[in-house]
Automatic annotation (TrEMBL):
Keyword annotations of the record: NAD, Oxidoreductase
Domain Aldehyde dehydrogenase, chain residue ranges per copy: 22-481
EC number: 1.2.1.27
Keyword S-adenosyl-L-methionine recorded: no
Gene Ontology biological process terms in this record: L-valine catabolic process; thymine catabolic process
Organism the protein comes from: Kribbella steppae
Any one GO molecular function term: methylmalonate-semialdehyde dehydrogenase (acylating, NAD) activity
Protein name according to UniProt: methylmalonate-semialdehyde dehydrogenase (CoA acylating)
InterPro entries: Ald_DH/histidinol_DH, Ald_DH_C, Ald_DH_CS_CYS, Ald_DH_N, Aldehyde_DH_dom, MeMal-semiAld_DH
Pfam family, one: Aldedh
Amino acid sequence: MTTTITHWADGAGYDGTSQLWADVTNPATGTVSGRVALASERDARHVIGAAKQASATWAGTSLARRTQILFAFRELLNARKDELAQLITAEHGKVHSDAVGEISRGQEVVEFACGIAHLLKGGQSGNASTGVDVHSRRDPLGVVGIISPFNFPAMVPMWFFPIAIAAGNTVVLKPSEKDPSAALWIAKLWKEAGLPDGVFNVLQGDKVAVDALLQSPDVAAISFVGSTPIAQYVYEEASRYGKRVQALGGAKNHMVVLPDADLELAADAAVNAGYGSAGERCMAISVLVAVEPIADDLVARIAERTRTLRTGDGRRGAEVEADMGPLVTKAHRDKVAGFVDSGEAAGAKLVIDGRDVEAVGDQDGFWLGPTLFDHVTPEMEIYREEIFGPVLSVVRVPSYDEAVALINDNPYGNGTAIFTNDGGAARRFENDVQVGMIGVNIPIPVPVAYYSFGGWKRSLFGDTHAHGTEGVHFFTRAKVVTTRWINPAARPEGGLELGFPQNV
Ligand code: NAD
């Protein structure tokens, strides 16, 4: 039985009028599990219109009420996250525990946004000039658009919407058409939590839906996460239409292992961060930079661990508990397998070949097992391109300086990590690398919700990172109010004075 996945506008499902639908597949079986609506421009106007209509009332709703609804949403999500995780696994393919993990990280942003009353407090200066007081405040923007990628259907939208809503904005979320059900489930949860209709809306679709959001005069800001070419397009197009925009792009994350590192810890970390979620994470480690003379030893330890991984159907209660699920679509699976062909043809040493994996699950699933390349060099395609699959490339370098040069020459700057027991070296690394998020003996340094998430260089277009204080600033704009109230007991002299006012 296939399900129909619609838009969500004004607190209810909305089929739209386009009569266009796209298939949604279960990557572990290769079967079509549902069909998702693809918005026309008219459908987009309807959904954006719902957000616009709710905007003034929501912005005027008290902080106390907004916070109560956020707490209610947090409680419902916490109690029912298993349900959402099952939906994610069925459309994305990541194993159940991984799906629960992404929801928990998203929930941290909801918890951060529960403190919005404190985060929106402005400054106040009494008697800034004689008899004059000044205060600042942060107001919501209006309708904001969130456009998300396939790889985190719950966590990435949650980087943005809890703060946007808490700050008094209304939201239109455009999820990936590959795994669109999570967004609809979240919309229903908001309704249950008591969020007024029209504050959280979902617009399903492809480029037509995205362009409608970028071009709509009723949308004030865009938060985008996806691949670098589309991030750049979204940044340029939304800016052209006068919007505030943050567009997070792709990545090629390097993990440096210095000779003094704990190699057991480093090998575990490389396997976890290289193959978790089948490498479909923007913070996945895809390049391991081994500073000699440890490469032989480290590669052997990684290979030994990699051979124990089980690739298979990640659904809870599946035949075997898998470590890693399938890739999201057949096209993506074939693209990643093509990169393995390319690495082999370029002369990299294929230590473990995921193309012939024996997965536990339906033979029509989009399987590709963990793949390990050694002796990769920077000219090779597998080094240059973001693969976004379970392929880990080892590059051997003779020194720390060459490891850092490699990272800084790379066009991306999302995440990086160093493994060492030398505090001085780690500190130097922190200063030297041009990357937004750095881990020291931590392979996936995704910041906690009260710090901000974002890369440098071609991993982020715009200047504001996601969540944390930067997220609060992105979804609000400042007003500064300068006030003079007349003291009835000491009325000042009036009079005309056309010179520029000075503070005295
Ligand atoms: P994608 O760029 O293909 O799609 C992202 C969104 O853009 C989707 O909602 C999609 O419908 C829309 N889109 C696709 N093509 C478009 C077009 N031509 N015009 C307008 N909109 C379009 O990305 P994806 O494959 O869904 O996700 C994987 C990518 O996302 C990887 O590159 C990964 O590194 C990146 N990512 C980055 C971060 C980060 O924080 N920097 C986080 C997660 C994923």
